[in-house]
Amino acid sequence: MKGQTGLLLAVFVLLLSGCEAAGGRSTLTIEPYSLSESEQELISRTGVDGIQFFKLDGKLAEKEDLQFSMEIYKDGRLTDDVVYTRGQVEKEFNQSLVSYGINQGDEQITFLNGINGGMMEQVESIEGVRGSSFTSFIDEKTELVKDEAVYLTAWTGTKGSLLEGVSLNDEGTLDGMEHIDTGYVFKMTWTNGMEE
């Protein structure tokens, strides 16, 4: 009888661990979204100077969240890291579009971030910037890891005549920001929920 009870207990534990692995573990991926010709034509008529699109797939557990944030660089140094969207209402993503766009003027830039059910618009001063670049860091399907930021796009500007490149290294961190006069880097982080 003890042997049967032990066997039943072992089977029960295995079943529970299998259910937890299958149902208790969230996965999220993000990848570039390529526009069709007609989509490109529509976008070209909106007046947006540049835009990057991504597809988000996966499911968040009930208490999990996606945080969207922006790192701000001045004179090659990180000066701020601002979470601008959190408290994700939608928990399931099926090729949901995420977009990052820019409208650049002489002394200011407007950043546009489209996410499920809404759009964020942020205006920043870029006084004195003579040249700029708008870069995407995602070129293939990428799996998000909880509590690790995924860098998506960056706008960088120079007040001089030379604009150095910015890239993502093998560790997933940025290279080249130390040479940037002004920079805004956009990222997404999968978290365990809203933190104050």
UniProtKB/TrEMBL annotation:
Key words of the record: Signal
Signal peptide as annotated in the record: 1-22
Superkingdom assignment: Bacteria
Name of the protein: Lipoprotein
Taxonomic lineage from the root: Bacteria, Bacillati, Bacillota, Bacilli, Bacillales
